[in-house]
Amino acid sequence: MTVTQPDDAAAVVLYATPELVVTRQWIYTRGHRYRVADLEQVVRARGGLHPAAQGALVVAALDVTAAIPIMTMVGSLAGWAMAAVAVLVPCLVAVVSVYRWPPRQELWAYHRGCRVLLLKTRDGIVFGQVSRALQRAIESLPTRQR
């Protein structure tokens, strides 16, 4: 998908990729064009953990709740070592999952009374760049249009 470029050749582009363009007057995203002056209540949202990380943490918690009572009854060193591995492996999976699939970040706004999703990404750098570009576009509006 390629976003159509701004109509005004003199438009100041604050951020641009083939999928998303932010100028001082417009944001072109997800096949739509929104006038920056018409955007209200711009909100940044962060999603939850990836399902793999959630599942790994649940498994680790269940391992701990099962291993401690059993190991207190058995009491062998080898048993404690196996219980530690049973807890550490899902924790490692959770850490890798969070690194590999960071939480989704979203940029929402109201456009003429309708809530619209402007951006959805797992890339924190892109999210920060787009958020800042939109913030600069909003700050560049004359006071009466804000």
From TrEMBL:
* Residue ranges of the TM segments: 77-99
> Is the keyword Transmembrane assigned to this protein?
yes
Alphabetized, the UniProt keywords read: Membrane, Transmembrane, Transmembrane helix
InterPro entries reported in the protein's UniProt record:
DUF6232 (IPR045629)
- What's the protein called, per UniProt? Uncharacterized protein
Q: Which organism is it from?
A: Phytohabitans houttuyneae
